[in-house]
Amino acid sequence: MGTFKYPAEFRADAVALVRSSTRPVAQIARELGINHETLRSWVRAAERAERPGAATESAKDAELAALRKEVAELKLEREILRKAAAYFARETLG
């Protein structure tokens, strides 16, 4: 079964409704015709996005992941070059 993507405006309005209401999230979700866990995840995501430094942390995490990937590639390249150098040294001597 496929997933349905709700428009950003609908998600923002739903989160605002949860925040301004005293009703339970499950009740609001039922009234909106969406799954309560979906609505909970939207509220959590909005809270994370509003947290100071959230964008900075995610940018740092992305940069760290990219750098770790680059380091792994460079180590692999170095190992290949080391083996190639050893092979050609044997060919020259032998």
From TrEMBL:
Q: Name one GO molecular function term.
A: DNA binding
Matching SUPFAM superfamilies: Homeodomain-like
The organism sits in which domain of life? Bacteria
- Coiled-coil residues are 57-84
* Sorted UniProt keywords: Coiled coil
Q: Which InterPro entries match?
A: Homeodomain-like_sf, RD_transcriptional_regulator, Transposase_8
Give the residue range of the signal peptide.
none
For biological process, the GO terms are:
DNA transposition
Q: Which PANTHER family does this entry report, sorted A to Z? A: PROTEIN DISTAL ANTENNA
Name the UniProt record assigns to this protein: Transposase
Organism this protein belongs to = Planomonospora sphaerica
